[in-house]
């Protein structure tokens, strides 16, 4: 079968992936083989390609937003049958025995393995994955629009949950890519107002189309006396862009007692900032990976909320072009590699 592999870290704009022939994976105990139909491409894949996230060994096959058809079932698998459409996400497996796993924080397991980093991912025609770390894909989403739900949606849902956002409160989003455009819709569905800070005019327009009450640049928060309209104070904020300089601005955007969540697996250094931005019982916290609970709960949300998933489809052969587009923020919504997608679903 064909798979895109990273032989060594390199700039995501320099076509770092090589298309190679590899053997079909055979599912081991507790595993299934997915025939890949679509796989999302996100900033985490860029971080893997460029070595910000270091794989334990190379080559590595990236991709962790995988929609596929169950093709084979390994020994000991129950409740999953060939022919089902299921999705694999960032968490490939956790040990299940350590202190973190016992308290339900399998995302913090020291022995956790991640899809597309420690285990071959979905930039391939097929992949093997533990059945327990896959979820059914809700109807109503074709393969390409379902793929971003498995990372952008799941990690965004976790960030939203950890922010403590309550119905009627106001949420600020910093950066507006694949994850943020889904979080905005969930927050609006729950009865919250949303403001969006992003540099891209196209992303601002998409945010407004999806119901943002305000969209503009974060530079207004750095001005003591803004020259133009400024957004209202927010109760919670989520930082999606991997730019450390946004963190003090997010703290400035929230009220006393508010929460800022950093939703980035890798980020540039956070600059020093005056204590008054944190004072007033503001909370600053991070999101680290996802759990099976997050994936299961968000799939239920996606089944009940008709999310508009903005995707830019790329043929499987254009994996390097998709990676470069994500690196350069040229994607409106989410980038998705598509492998022979059937018409309609």
Automatic annotation (TrEMBL):
<keyword id="KW-0862">Zinc</keyword>
<dbReference type="GO" id="GO:0005737">
    <property type="term" value="C:cytoplasm"/>
</dbReference>
<dbReference type="InterPro" id="IPR013154">
    <property type="entry name" value="ADH-like_N"/>
</dbReference>
<dbReference type="GO" id="GO:0004022">
    <property type="term" value="F:alcohol dehydrogenase (NAD+) activity"/>
</dbReference>
<feature type="domain" description="Enoyl reductase (ER)">
    <location>
        <begin position="12"/>
        <end position="337"/>
    </location>
</feature>
<dbReference type="InterPro" id="IPR036291">
    <property type="entry name" value="NAD(P)-bd_dom_sf"/>
</dbReference>
<dbReference type="Pfam" id="PF08240">
    <property type="entry name" value="ADH_N"/>
</dbReference>
<dbReference type="Pfam" id="PF00107">
    <property type="entry name" value="ADH_zinc_N"/>
</dbReference>
<dbReference type="InterPro" id="IPR020843">
    <property type="entry name" value="ER"/>
</dbReference>
<protein>
    <recommendedName>
        <fullName>alcohol dehydrogenase</fullName>
        <ecNumber>1.1.1.1</ecNumber>
    </recommendedName>
</protein>
<keyword id="KW-0560">Oxidoreductase</keyword>
<dbReference type="GO" id="GO:0046872">
    <property type="term" value="F:metal ion binding"/>
</dbReference>
<dbReference type="InterPro" id="IPR011032">
    <property type="entry name" value="GroES-like_sf"/>
</dbReference>
<dbReference type="InterPro" id="IPR014187">
    <property type="entry name" value="ADH_Zn_typ-2"/>
</dbReference>
<keyword id="KW-0479">Metal-binding</keyword>
<dbReference type="InterPro" id="IPR013149">
    <property type="entry name" value="ADH-like_C"/>
</dbReference>
<comment type="similarity">
    <text>Belongs to the zinc-containing alcohol dehydrogenase family.</text>
</comment>
């Amino acid at each position: 079968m064909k798979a895109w592999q990273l032989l060594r870290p390199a700039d995501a704009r320099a076509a770092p992936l090589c298309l190679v022939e590899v053997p079909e994976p055979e599912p081991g105990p507790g595993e299934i083989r997915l025939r890949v139909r679509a796989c999302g491409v996100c900033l985490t894949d860029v971080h893997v390609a460029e070595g910000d996230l270091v794989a334990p060994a190379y080559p590595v096959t990236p991709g962790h937003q995988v929609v596929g058809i169950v093709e084979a079932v390994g020994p000991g698998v129950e409740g999953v049958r060939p022919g089902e459409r299921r999705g694999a996400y960032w968490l490939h497996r956790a040990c299940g025995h350590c202190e973190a796993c016992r308290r339900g924080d399998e995302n913090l397991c020291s022995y956790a393995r991640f899809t597309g980093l420690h285990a071959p991912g979905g930039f391939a025609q097929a992949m093997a994955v533990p059945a327990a770390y896959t979820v059914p894909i809700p109807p109503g989403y074709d393969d390409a629009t379902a793929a971003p739900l498995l990372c952008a949606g799941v990690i965004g849902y976790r960030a939203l949950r950890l922010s403590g956002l309550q119905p009627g409160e106001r949420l600020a989003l910093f950066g507006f890519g694949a994850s943020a455009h889904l979080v905005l819709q969930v927050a609006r569905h729950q009865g919250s107002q949303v403001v969006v800070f992003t540099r891209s005019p196209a992303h601002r327009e998409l945010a407004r189309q999806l119901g943002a009450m305000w969209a503009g640049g974060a530079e207004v928060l750095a001005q003591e006396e803004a020259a133009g309209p400024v957004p209202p104070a927010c109760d919670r904020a989520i930082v999606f862009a991997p730019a450390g300089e946004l963190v003090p601005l997010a703290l400035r955007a929230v009220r006393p007692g508010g929460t800022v969540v950093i939703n980035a697996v890798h980020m540039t250094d956070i600059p020093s900032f005056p204590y008054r931005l944190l004072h007033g019982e503001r909370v600053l916290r991070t999101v680290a990976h996802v759990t099976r609970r997050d994936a299961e709960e968000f799939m239920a949300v996606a089944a009940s909320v008709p999310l508009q998933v903005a995707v830019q489809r790329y043929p499987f052969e254009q994996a390097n072009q998709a990676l470069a587009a994500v690196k350069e923020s040229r994607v409106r919504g989410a980038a998705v590699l598509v492998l022979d997608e059937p018409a309609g679903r």
